[in-house]
Amino acid sequence: EVQLVESGGGLVQAGGSLRLSCAASGFTFDDYAIGWFRQAPGKEREGVSCISSSDGSTYYADSVKGRFTISSDNAKNTVYLEMNSLLPEDTAVYYCARRRLGSDEYDHWGQGTQVTVSS
Length: 119
Known about the structure:
This protein is mainly β. It contains no helices and 11 strands.
């Protein structure tokens, strides 16, 4: 069974940091990219960052460049999102999802973890 399980969300003050984890199981990790997305109340889902498990290539949305860092521990089948200098506008439910390398579609999603940044 394919599973993506996020953890690490919480409440933090503006300027603080959090590290999200996405633990993957049930599929060949190296065949997929893992992306982080977020959705705030009343807003559309936004792609935040992505990493290819095979070559480590990364992508960041402009809104998080220089503040967020994505990394992958292939031995643990886990992707991390280190979030620094958090802003109130980073408040959202954060989801991880998988995308088969060479595909444009994210086909399996985690349940999400809430990140709340207070001003």
